[in-house]
Amino acid sequence: MSDQPKKMTEAELLNPQDAGKPEPATTRMDSKETEVGSVFVSNYPPYSFWKKETVLEARKALNSPPASEATLGLYLHIPFCRKRCKFCYFRVYTDKNSSEIQTYLNALVKEVELYSEMPSVVGRPLEFVYFGGGTPSYISARHLKALVRSVKSAISWDSAKEVAFECEPGTLTQTKLEAIKEIGVTRLSLGVENLNDEILKENGRAHLTKEVYRVMPWIHALEFKQLNVDLIAGMVGETWETWQETVQKTIDLDVDSITVYQMELPFNTVYSKDILGGSDLFVADWKTKREWHNYAFEQFAAAGYEMSSAYTMVKKGKPGKFVYRDAVWHGSDMIGAGVASFSHMSGVHFQNAASWGEYLGSLNAGKLPLDRAFSTTRQERLTREMILQLKLGEIDTAYFQKKFDEDILDVFGSTYERLRNEGMLTFDKDGVKLTRKGLLRVDGLLPEFYAPKYQNARYT
Question: Of 8, 220, 339, 412, which residue has the fewest beta carbons closer than 10 angstroms?
């Protein structure tokens, strides 16, 4: 009998339950190995429950005055990259020329213009603007400036508390960084991921470490209000020695905040498909990744950083707010513009068409490219905010009492009790606080709070 893993069928890839396996993203599991299907929890209920027939509810929400005092943010999806990373699951394109990029950016502007005329948006100030990807820094300075001029003519963001911008080091020049600063970016986030060239190459990253060191003097000279660096614990090829070197080299970069993610394997990545196809690819287990994550946080703390969330450390004395994260995790409305982008409005979640042709076609016809949606109940909104804010490390009972008129210790008390008995958190009448043990595995704890119908379901 072969020792090779069984190759899964297409149906089993789409529905792991059909293969007799629990769904790792929505099931509380004490897995040792990194399982295919694990994800960073970004929303609740799971995306797989969003349906085309609910798009009517999204349109109704957009065509009505805002239903609450929620803040409003704008997410702009720039889906272009030099290469697709082997762990990437986002909607990105690596084969578009300048003309095609311009066509897409024109559509993006048209989409924002359509939103700006909606009763749910008119007259509301933007709390934040977020350029996400893909790689926003992939596009030229000329494209970027033109995009911003057109978008701001539709929805001004002069009063926004934060304009955040994701970058890949190898796409940056001094001129492009000057353009990024000129458009008002306050939070620059650099996707470093690792500072070992062999690991970067193995995982399909487009940049090498020399490009990180090349751009850092330019970034520091421009004095962005906040500079964040992203790292991933557990990239393929990582060892204790290489991780320790990356942590120290990151400290030496002297940045304002550092975000550490643990390597995950969503279904539609190159690595996940290889593993499900029978590859014996080695990915660090969860115990090792948690140890690496913990080591990094200990070293960052010793270097003068303080915890901002289960993932992020901020240098003492530096701006510690991440407005986009905190707003979304506190129920902010958000316009998500771009192919496959996600939005939230008055308790209704919705996503754009995920294909290039459908997205452009809808906007060429003067229509918003909405593809699927989900209308949440009050209980689902309470659960969503509670689990997302738990990722901050602690939550305040008074906040939920004021917003939802609910005592979360009554609503979730039995689950808090179970997790306290496992050493994952502590709680009293004032709030809930994760222990370090709980912090390092918080995404794996969250399914404990899911309604039964959402447990062991496909996440996306």
Answer: 220
**Are the C-beta atoms of 270 and 204 separated by less than 8 Å?**
yes
The number of domains in the chain is 1
Looking at residue 12, its pLDDT comes to 41
The verdict on residue 269 lying in a domain is yes
Q: Who's near 357: CB < 8 A, 6+ residues apart?
A: none
In a domain, 274, yes or no: yes
The set of residues, in sequence order, having a beta carbon less than 8 Å from that of 84 and lying 6+ positions away, is: 92, 94, 204, 270
Do the Cβ atoms of 327 and 128 come closer than 8 Å?
A: yes
Question: Where are the extended beta strands (E) located within 46-146?
Answer: 72-78, 126-133
- CA distance to 29, 105, 440, per residue, from 34 (Å): 11, 37, 14
- C-alpha dihedral (202, 26, 339, 377), degrees to nearest 10: -160
Instruction: Give one DSSP letter per residue of 83-101, joined into a string.
Output: S--TT--S--BS---HHHH
Mean pLDDT per block of 10 residues along the chain (460 residues) reads 33 44 80 85 95 98 91 98 91 95 98 98 96 96 97 95 98 98 98 98 96 98 97 97 98 97 92 90 94 98 97 91 96 98 97 98 98 98 98 97 97 98 98 97 96 92
Give the Å distances, CA to CA, from 69 to 65, 158, 329, 332: 11, 20, 15, 9
What's residue 181's pLDDT?
98
Residue 302 lies in a domain: yes
- Residue ranges with strand state E in 110-225: 126-133, 162-167, 187-193
243 and 200 Cβ atoms separated by less than 8 Å:
no
Sequence-separated (6 or more) residues with CB below 8 Å from residue 422 = none
How far apart are alpha carbons 362 and 113 in whole angstroms?
14
> CA triplet 363, 368, 370: central angle to 5 degrees?
120
What is the C-alpha to C-alpha distance for residues 432 and 420, in angstroms, rounded to an integer? 10
Look at residue 20 in the predicted model and tell me its pLDDT.
Answer: 54
Instruction: Output the pTM of the full model.
Output: 0.93
pLDDT for res 37: 86
- Pairing relationship of beta strands 370-375 and 394-396 according to DSSP bridges: unpaired
Which structure tokens are listed for 336?
């998500």
Closest CA to 245 of 257, 259, 231: 231
- The CATH number of the domain holding residue 226 is 3.80.30.20
Which region holds residue 404: left if phi is over 0, alpha if psi is between -120 and 50, else beta?
alpha
Q: Can you tell me the distance from the alpha carbon of 91 to that of 326, in angstroms, rounded to the nearest whole number?
A: 24
Residue 124 maps to a domain: yes
**Range of 287's domain?**
49-326
